[in-house]
Structures are given as structure tokens and as C-alpha cells.
Design a protein that fits this description.
By secondary structure, this protein is α/β, with parallel strands linked by helices. The chain has 19 helices and 18 strands.
Length: 618
Amino acid sequence: MAHIKCLSGFFFRQPGHFWQLNPGNSKSMSSDQLPRCSVYVLVVLDGRIPVASELPLLLTQMGLLGLGFKRERRLDRATGTSHVSINNHRGLLGFWNTRAVETLTSLGALLLALVAVWHMASSSRSWMLYYGAETVLPALLWGSGSFQHWALSAVLFLPEMALYSLIALCGLSLKATLTTFAVADFFFAYLLLRMTAGFIVKAPRPARAFGALLAFTAIVVFAVLDDSPGWDTFELVSLLATATYYSATVLALIATIGITAALTAAALPRARHSRLTCGLAAVVFISTASNPLYLGWVLVPLVATLLVLTWRRVLGLRKTARISALVFGFAAAGLAARLPFSGLITKDTSTYAAPERALATALYYVRMLVERASTLSGFVSLVLMFALIIASALLSRHFIRKKSSSAALVATMGWMSPLITVCGAVGLGAVGTRYLQPLFYAPAIALVFIPALMRSRRSMARLPAWLPLVRKPVATISTAVIITLCCALAGAALFSESAGVETSIRCVDGWITAHNRPGAGGYWTIRGPKAYLANKSLLLQVDDHFNAYPWLVDRTDFNTRSVSFVVHDRSYPAPQLPPGIHPTHTTVVHCGRYTIQDFGSAILPVGPAATTPAPPVP
């Protein structure tokens, strides 16, 4: 019978014998006890065992490289040959080294995030990113002065404003802050996908890391296919770069799916179960308090998915009831936490519902789909979206048959969330393509399974008997250096692109600062210049009838009751002048897309604000 002498953590085999080097704990064991050892390496140099003179160099190289391999018995007793099979490579270097894989995929995700934002900054999408009437809200909140009395929508943007404030504390320019925020949002999406893959994918760490990177790549591809300046289109994934189009709710969608899927696993350790429960409770509470849309995007589809899995006997009824009670309980707490902010909310969530507009809303979405499909990039984007939804449905069926609860939940949410989101938006008469973002994100999450499903029965990282201790680390380091250089170049190009302010905005702000007199303009016209203005109170937001328009703005601006000039642009008409005021003896200043109509003194009275202003319609 073959014997093993335990000497370290390395097994050296020649026909019929094994040796493990472990000073201080030397004992013998039979070869049938080998599978009980948790970590070992089988080493054969050119078909022979290393001689004593080779062991110091070999062990030194292994120690420096931090090589370690989780047990995988691959022995051919007939031929007496052996090889190394890696399931979980725990070391510092090496292409299949876990730290190296995590580093490479994280660098790759950062590069993709930079590319996505760079595309937006260098295309016509840049206007929406840097100067859009709604995307500049964080800049207006951050720089509006000491005392603030804000008028907000039903969405409070609490996580988004927290992140923006942290970035703004670094002292960057406004455009650089918005750029950094955009890159951070995309990278957070990758981190949450990686967390989800780590929770649910039953495969070696490289497969989980590359699965998360694949799902994130799909998201970036969708973002790169978005290239128009408009926000109310089916170019939805690029909205992740902004703070005011529910980016935190999108990230919460990914986090909730991942954590809940982990909670559905059987026989969870108590400590792990407690951590996951606390994490899910925090995500549900914060997301609901910030944006009630989270209920329709995530919670309702999640409970529907749990019920489907219970019906198909993938989940037990007790576990479904516990998770449902948890999410609905903390969602109710989140809604209650909105009460202290009620003075800031000018239009409550319930007032957005208009079921009588369901047919008109359905026709609106069909029209927007046709409009998006009329361009090549839009057609490709929609085809990929529907392909991912179909793939999620197929994966859902596959995992339900295998009774894999975690994987089945993720795949089922890939089609359940889009279905309920579309039906809910149409049924409630919610006009706005931004409400349909789960169509792109929920099915993309299921891509984290693809590398694991494509693995062969052999180990993903199978090395020959002679360990290449030099080439793999060199390849890893070289790849990491190349990706890092690409990140640096992309970052430099991106921040160079976002260094200067658009000439029209700069012209308007320069004129207002030089004259230091208050003026007014419409919602869609003045918010871009107002965000970059040093004294933001010099531009007042008015409606079409020259009344104060308190929507996503500081109400203290309206302490000024009269203005001296009006700003309008090519896209939106100027508001009607107050009764008795005629545009005679005025000075007209042209600033690119903007026109300033100057009356010389503050003779234009601003009317009172509506009690519940309607959301602006472009």
C-alpha cells in the first residue's frame, strides 16, 4: 500500500508513494486518506520526483509566488502519471491566482466604466450628462447657499446626494465632480454584480469574477449604444451615470436580487444568515425611503418570484413567508421615514397615478420603441434587450428543474421584473421611459452564470505536471499593467474632455455675473446655466405665465419678486411676459443657443407659485 509522509503542504508523488512536507507534524497515512487533505499540490518534474538539491529552489519559488491549490485528486494509477488540477488558487500571483483574477477583472470593470462615461462625454449625450435640467440637481443642492428650503419631487435622491457630496468635498470642478460620480456609479454596478456572483454561482472564483464582468460588459454595451442628447427615450442604461434618473434604485435592484438569492440557499450558517438579513433590511429601508419606485421595480416582482418558486417546489413556504415579511416590513418602515421630508415634497407619489391614461400610455411606449428602433444602434440595443429577457426565461426554467433556488430566483427576476414594471407603468398611466429601466438591468444580472455553465467537466484551470512558475505571473503582471495604463489614458482623456464648460453656458454666466442683476427663465432653459453660476439665486425659475415654478429648486430664490432680464433658448420658447410689459427698448444678447432679453432694470414682476406644481413637460 502506498503511504504519505506529512511534512509540509506539498505532495510529491512517484509511483506508489506520496510525500507531504510538514515539519513538526510528521506522520504516515495511506493513499486512500489523501482526499481528506484540504490543500495540496502534486508536483512532478519531467516525470520524476525532485531531488533534494532542487527542493529549496522549488519551495522558495512556490512560497514567493504564493501558490496554493484546493484539493482535486487527478491520478492515473495505470500509467503512474499525475497533473495539477486547480479549483481555488489562493495566492498572490499567477493567472489563475484568485487575487490576480479579482485584480484583473476589477481593473477591466474600471476601464469599461471609464469608456462608458467617456463615450457620453464625447458624444451628444454629454449635454444630458452635464447640463440637463434634471441632471444638474445635485450641483444646485450642493451650491445653493446656507439656508435652503427645497421643493422636491416624490424621489428624495438620498443615496445619490450622499455620494455626490462625498465627491464634491474633494474640491473638484462641477464637471469633474459629475464625471467622477458617473464613473463611480458604473463601477458600483460591477461591484454589486460581483457580490451577486459570489453569493449564488457555484463555481471557482475565476468563473464568478468573469461572470460578473460579463454581466457588467453587457450593461456598458447598452450604455455605449446610447448616443442622443434626449433623456426621454429608450436610451436608459446611460442614465446610470446621472444622479437624478434613479441610479441608486438601479443599484438597489442588483443588490436586492443578490442578497435575497443568497438567503434562499439551504442550510445557511446562522452568522451568515444574520448578516444577509441585516443587509437586505438596510437596502430595502433606504431604497424605499429615497424612492418609492423601488416597490414596483423590485419588491413586487421579488415577492411574485418567490411565489412562483414556491409553487414549483423550489422554495419552502416558510422561507418565502419570512423573506416576504422582511422586505414588506422594512419597506413600510422606509415609507414612514419619508414623513419628516413631507415639507420638501411638492407632489406626492399617489398623484402620479392616472389609470385612465393607460391606453394613451401604452401607445406612448409603443411609439418610443419604434422611434428607438429606427436607428441602427437603437435596433441593436432593443434586440439585445429582448434576447437577454428570453435568455433569463430559459435559464429560469433550467434552474427551476434543477431545484437550484438561488440561481432560479436571479434568472426568474430577469423576466419577472421587466414584466411587472411594464404592466405597472401602463396600468398606472406613468408616462416616461425612465420608469422602464429594469428591462435592461434585471435580465443582464443572469449573465453571471454563463462562465460557470460553459465550464467543462475538467477543472477550469488545469495545468500540466511541470508548473510554469514564471510565465503565468509575468502574463498576469503584464496584463494588469496594460489595463492600468489603459485606465490612466481613458481617465486622462475623459477628464480632459470634461475640463471646459460649454461656450453657451459660459457666455450666459459671464454676462449675468458681470451685470449682477436677477433674471428669469423656463425650467428647461435656465437650470444648466444656473448650476454653473457662482451666485445661483440670480436666475429664477418661472413657468409659461411668468409665475414662480417651485420644482426641484430652492424656494428661497423666490424671495426676489422682480427681475430685469429673461433667458430663453432655441429649443424652448420664452415665457409670456407679465401683463403690461412689452419688449420695447430692450437689449438682446446672443449666447450661442441662448438669448438674453435685457430690460435694464428689475421691472418684471414674478407671479406667485402654484400650490402643487405639475411636473415639467418638455
